[in-house]
Structure formats: structure tokens, C-alpha cells
Amino acid sequence: MPVVRPSIRTTLFAHLETWRPYTAFYVGLVGLAGALLANPHASAARCLAAWAIPTLGWLGGLYGGDYFDRELDAKAKPQRPIPSGRMSATTALCCFLSCSAAGGLLSLVLNWRTVLLVFGAFAAGVAYSKVFKGRGLSGNIVRGSMTALAFLYGSMMVGDYPPARLLPVALVFWLHDAASNLVGAVRDIDGDREGGYRTFAVDRGATRAAGTAALLLAGAYALAASAPAILGRPWQTGYVLALLVAAASAAAAVGPLLRPHGETRPQAYRAHAVLVMTRIVLAGSFAVWTPGPALGVPLTVAAVAATWFSQRQLRERHEFGARPAATAPEDEAVTPEQVRDFVRGQLALLGAEPQLLAGLSAWERRIDIRLSAPDTRVLLLSEGGVVRLLEEDGDEPRATVPLVTITTTGAVFRDIFLLGRTNPRRAYLSRRLTMDAPPADMIRLNQLFNSFRRLAAPPTAADAGAARPEPVATARAQVRERAAADTDAVDAGPELPGTVVISDTTLRDGEQMPGVVFTPAHKRELARRLGALGIPLIEAGFPAVSTEEAAAIRGIVDAGGDALVQVIARPLDRDVDAAIETGAHSIAIFIGTSESHLTNKLRMSLDEVLTGVDRAVRRAKRAGRQVVFAAEDATRTDPEVLIRVGLAAAEAGADSFGLADTVGIAHPASMAALVRAVGAGCPLPLAVHCHNDLGLATANSLAGLAAGASGVQCSVLGIGERAGNAPLEQVVMALGTALGHDTGLDLGELQSLAEYVAELIRVQVPPYQPVVGANAFTHESGLHLDGISQDPSTYEPYRPELLGRSRRIVLGKHSGVSAVRTVADSMGLALDTDQARATLAAIKQAASSGELDREADAAQTIRRYAPAAASRSPLDAPVPRGR
């Protein structure tokens, strides 16, 4: 196949992009300022050298930076010249070395002593790209030093050595450029995280990085204001005005980053763009001060204008890539070939990184994807942690492999996978995508297709001239715009999703009930019973707590079963590694997000939390696990904060987002509002975890589901911290009875499961406990018994047979004569009216005095209190004993 070479125009434009004209004017102006401050009467030729040679070195550094950062740019900024193929890495390296060599030779000719500065700048550039860029604040300091060296170099173009009095002024540019570079690191925080660069912004968070940049800028402008005193020269109005403009602009640019609202990266991009302008004004202020306004003002204005123009024309493209045409993909229909090509490409990418699907190693399924408009069928096979495409020419797996089916339209497939306009959650909730799959399979499907969406294949040659579709992992600011288009469909009413994923946390949160300890054997048996019930996701514990806890979890995983085993981990490397080592299929990364947790418990900034979540989620995803991010105390967290954290988790690869009502403070209306707000701004499937401190856990769980959550976490009998959690049996029966949702669980297992847990925790189930309490189907009132005898639904929300239970009738203080006669008749005992009244009076007297046996059923009570004269029917007569 012939090699397609870029055109001359494309090549020249690639070099122009690499030069970044919006930065190139600055370093020459700094060198010129150094020359003029060292010798205001220097010749024009020497001043030109002071401007040109640092600029040449700067351009070489830009080539070198792009060369050394080419692998990082391939992930974070694929539009740049080298990753996009418009410039080869060899070309960039040659240009870097050529510019450096040319600058060195000119320096030897004009002042051989400057070679030390040239070598220092060369070494600083290489050291920054290869070593210090990922070493926190030291990288920004090294990067800033290069401008200080340019200033000193300019002074040496008009003298043998730089005057000592200029060293504080060199520090002005050092501090300013270190600050500017630090703001640039905030802008690039996502790409640096992806590439594994531990920059100061990645390690400490965007807000702390912005605060440090503000301090560096304050130092730079304080020194600049002191320059007249340091240099022993009088103030000049032009210098003061230029300095004030630069300082005020810098403060206005960095200020919003100290208390960010919305997406950090675009704010940092704008702030850095302003700082690029302010440093031109800062350098120009010295040119205005020394030779005078007649030369300094036009020079500075020209540099500012050129920088502004080049930023508008080139910068956004260089940093973010060209925006796709707004109307190009809007009405373009997807073809069957595009669908299959996309699937093949994503499977190839997954095949190259098999660890990404390690969590699916035991999951064997045929996945039938059916599209309409166009009519297309894609059949996949998941087996042994590998997913492959089955062609329609008879390549069918054995029929015993279970089948799951996904049905949608070509337009929805295009918008989810090819354009990233929407996400599976929104399509599912709005019924534009349906899945015929059990909840446990839905969790795995979500994990698989989340990997599909995150792996953006490079465009083919055929696509080179077309508008490039927006990648799925895109800037956070655009997520809200996409969400707005789907909000009406999602919020149309309290209709539940087709499948609700019910997760049980009895083994984890339930064991946090004071005084409760489950042995490993108890845990395995409890997990087995939960699996028999049909629970798809079992939260088994917190492996970082102890080696014993981790071993018990490993025992549950090794026991097998259809349910996914989930563990929890804080966003710490040791926690995530401990979770991975248990073999658990799913890891829930949790951390508090409310102001109370951040300030009083964690003592962390939100940016530090974002950094930790990003790192932990990526670590777990690299191990091939299904990953949930769980926001502790979500119901007391600002929804905007939840959206920011949720988006960070989504970008790192999380598969779902859990909202915890940690202190049980929510009510149904507030829970529904929270789920809707977060769901409108975050693409991940949502789940709710509600505590019962106010007795609202079940109601809040249902409200969250009705508002758009697709998962709910419960515990058997509601056991857990303090007042416990949403009781599993109550949520399950409420879903089926109150909301008409078939959970697919074996309801007959609920009663025995509740009794088993009650035995383990050594607590009697209260008789009035909903669903599983002894009185759930027990009736005493005469009015109730009258209704029950005619139609059980008059006083029962569902049939006791659903749970494998039976109705129980008792007699007591609230019973009536008709109830006594009805029970007596069922026993074959004939009571006339007076006898029935006498029996009822005796029963009520016993109940009032506390002598009535509460455990006795109605028949036993009648036998005890009915008059001895009552006659039995022949059917109720004693059976004669044999001889």
C-alpha cells in the first residue's frame, strides 16, 4: 500500500502549530528586556540578537517538548502534529537539535560565555520533558527557569556577564512562568492523569495548584514593583501602568480557579490564555521603562496583537482539536457495515488489552444485538474473558450458552457509540434501548459496553477528509449539553426501568451492626442463600480491614454462583490492591463528598478527592473489574459537586455511580430530586443506598428508583449501622406489589433467609415486622375477618402464598361474634348465638387480663373458651383407638 504523505501546506501548518506563535513572541521580548536593562544604549544589532537567539532556542524547545511528549499527546491530544501524523517524530527531533545547535553556534560567535546559559536551557528543557514534568512542583520550577535564562542571555548580548543587579528581575520571569506553567498543568490535568504524569495539579488537585500559582504570581509582581528600587532607577508612568494592567489581568484570570464552578479544564484554558497575554505586557513594561514609550509601546502592542490573533486562530485547535461540524453527523444514518466495523475495531482493541475484561472470565453468554433502521444483527460470544464476533454464516456457539438480547435503533447505536451524544443509561430509561437479560447479566453488559465506549479507535484513511466524530471520552462541559436533550424523556414520569439491579449488603454493612460478627462459614452460607434468592450483586465486605476479612471474601468468590461478588475500597492504592486480590468481580470505590466529610473527616479539598477517585477507578479498571463509585453522604452534598465527582469517575472508567443517604436524612421528595439532578448531569447508571435513621429507607429507595436510578442496595431485615438500611424483603415486595415491578427473585426464599439472619444476629424478628414478621398475615379484628372471609385482598396487599406462608386467624379483644362462629364452624363445632357470645366474652376477658395465649391460633382459643355443652359434628368427633 503506498504511503500517503501530507501536503506541503499541511506540513507547513504543522510546523506553525508547533511554534505556537502565541508563545513565541514572549521569550524574544524577555531577552530584549534583559539587553535594554543591562545597557540602555546597546546597538540595534545586539538588541536584535538578544531577541532572535532566545526565540530560536524557544522554538527548538517546543519541537523537543512535542517529541518527548508524543506518547502522552497520543492519548490526551491526538490532534497535535506528531500524533495526527502531520509531522514525524524524527522531524521534530531534527528541528529540536537544529535550532539548539544554531543557537549555540551564534552564541559562540557573539559571546562564547553564553554557551553555559545555552547548555543550561537545553538541559532544563530535556530534564523537564523526561524527568521533572511528572515530579510535582519541581517540574513547573524547572520550566519557569528557562525564561529567566533567556532574560540573562539577553543581558549577555550587550556585556560579558549579566549584572548582579538584574538577578532579582530574572526571578520575576522565573516566578511568572512557573505560575503560568502550573495553570497549564491544571488545564492538562486529565491528560496527565491518563498518561501517568504526577504533576502538582494531579497530585494536589486543581484548586491547590491554582492557589500555588497565585502565590508565585504575587511574588513575581511584588518583585517587579520593587525593580526601580533594586536597579536604582526612577519610576516611569508607562512602566507602572503596564505593570498594573498585567497584575490585574493575572489576578482576574487565576481568581476563578481558586473557587471553581463547573468544569475546571475550560476555566484553566481561559486563565492560561490570559496569562500568556499578561506575560507579554510584563516583559513589555520593561521595554517601555528603559528605551521609553516611543519604542516600548509599539513593540509591546505589536507583540500583544500578534499573540492575541494567533491564540484565536490556532490555540484552541492545538489544545483541544478542531470541533466537528455541527450539522455533519446530525442526520447521517448509520450503515450495517459501520456497525460491524465499529464492533470489530473495539473487539480488536479489547483483545490487545485482555486484562480489561478479566472480570468477565467466568461469564459465558451469547449477546444478540438487534438494530432497526437499518435492520442489523450483531452476535457476540463472551467466553473465558474474551469477547468475539460471531458472523451470521453459521458460526453459532453451542445452544447451551445462555442468550441475552439488546434491541435498539441504528440512530441510538450511532449516538451512543460513534458520536457520544448520549449514553446507554439515558437510552435505557427512555425505552429507546431494551435488554432482555437478568440483572446480573445487565451489570456485566454495562461493564463490557462501557469499555466499548471508552476505547476510541483512530479514524480510518477513508475518514481522513471527513469531519471527525466527537470521541466518547470528551470534555466534561459537553456532558450537560447532551443530558439536556434527554431530560424530558427521562423525567416523563415515575416509571421504573425495565430491570432493577438489587444489591445486598448484609455481609458488609449488615455486619457493621453493633455486636454482629459473621464467621467465614456463616458468610459463605449467607451468600449461598442470597444467590438462591436470585440476588445479582452481593457486597461481601471490606478486604482492607484485615487479612481474615479478605480470606473470607475469597472463599465466597471461590464458591462460585451466578451473583457478582462486590467489595468496597477507599480511593487508596492499598485498598484497591487488596480488593483486586480477593478476586471479587466488582469494586465499589467510596469516599465522602459532603462539606462535612471533606472538612471535618477527610480534611481534603474537592480537587484532592477528584484526583484520588480518578486514580483509584483507573487502577481497578486496569485489573478488569466492574467498578462502582459510591459517594458517601451524597444526600447532604451539593448536586453540582456530585456531578463533578461522578463525571471524574466516569472519565476514569467507572461503570456506575452510587448515591448513599449515609445518615438517613433524606425524604422521598428530596431523594427523587437528587437522583434527577445527578442523572441529568452524569452519564453513569445510578444506584441508591439508603439508611433508616428516620424510618424512610424503603420509601427513599423506591423514590430513587422511580426518579431514574436503576439499582438499589438493601440488607436482610435492614440490619446495619445505627438504625440500619433499607430492608431487602420490604424493598423487594414493595417493588412488586406497590410498583408492579417483577424483580425476578424467588420470593419463597425471603422468609427462611430472614429467619436465618435473625438466628445469626441472635435477635428475634419483631412480629410486626413487614413481610417476614409473624403478624404480617395474622388477623384478629372482626371487621377484618369479615372482609378476609369474602375477599382476602380487602385487608392484605399480596397473598401470603407468594412467600410460602399462610394466613393466620387469632381471636382476642377486637374480635366479634361472627368471627367466633365462623372459626367454630370451620372446626365442626356447633355454637348457638348465646354460646358464641359467651365464648367471645370469655376470650375478651382473658385478653384484657393478659391471660390469653398470644401464640394460640383461633381454633386453639375456641377449644379453650367454648362452653363444654357445645356440640361437635360427627366429622369432629374423636377417632376410636384400636384395641
Describe, in plain words, how this protein is organized in 3D.
This protein is of the alpha/beta class. An eight-stranded parallel β-barrel has the order 8-9-10-11-12-13-14-15, surrounded by nine helices. Strands 5-4-3-6-7 form a five-stranded mixed β-sheet. A two-stranded parallel sheet has the order 1-2. Strand 4 (376-383) and strand 5 form a beta hairpin.
Our measurement of the CA-to-CA distance between the termini, rounded to an integer number of angstroms, reads 105 Å
By secondary-structure content and strand pairing, the structural class works out as: alpha/beta
The percent range for helix content is 40-55%
Mean of pLDDT: 85
The largest beta-sheet arranges its strands as: 8-9-10-11-12-13-14-15
What is the general shape? elongated
Count of alpha/pi helices: 33
Number of strands: 19
Cα gyration radius (Å):
36 Å
Q: Approximately what portion of the residues adopt beta-strand conformation?
A: 5-15%
> Sheet bearing the most strands, described?
8 strands, parallel, barrel
Low-confidence stretches: 320-329, 456-494, 873-883
